[in-house]
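Thought: the user wants the 3D structure for the chain below. I'll pass the sequence to the structure tool as-is, report back what it returns, then summarize two notable features.
Action: structure_tool
Action Input:
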Amino acid sequence: MYKIFFNRNIILLNYDGSSDNGCTYVFDFSDIEGKLHEFLDGIRKNDETVCLKCRDDKCKEDFWSRFKTISAAGGIVSNSAGEVLLIKRNGVWDLPKGKVEPGEKIIGAAVREVSEECGVKKIVAGKLFDVTYHIYDTYGFWALKETSWFLMQSDDYDFVPQTEEGIEEVRWVDRDFVNEVKNNMYPLIFELLSNYFVK
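Observation:
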């Protein structure tokens, strides 16, 4: 099963109905496949979990084919105090991430993006923590972003927010802060950090 975020909605693709995943609605993917973008437009402003059942193994391929796929990479950077590095981008708390450039290794892209967006220079990259999916629509252009998140370490405090990317602030934060700003954070990012803090 694939968990795909869309605004404040969660789409569970290839839902088998075997457990309670908080589904607000359950649909057969084949019934909406041909009008998927219209379906997404209809739930855009909601805050729901939509479960999509699949009839065959081509479900992921068929879903992905409706979007331009973008490969991205980012970091969950921690310091020796157990805090994580957050950025505030366009007024919303987020984690540093960005697109993987052609020919670039994914982990290299993750380190580069953290360095560029935060101004952090001393970064030790670790293992892959998770891969997340989210879809978005910008003026009729539908994209599915697949982001690889790597664990990293740094004790750098010499931040330089990448203002040209809308980044207003960079700071070390603890779990309590993450919980406090939950409503000013994308659900995908909050879930990712929640999973990180219980690891």
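Final Answer: Structure generated. The chain has two domains: 2-64, 70-197. Residues 2-64 form one domain.
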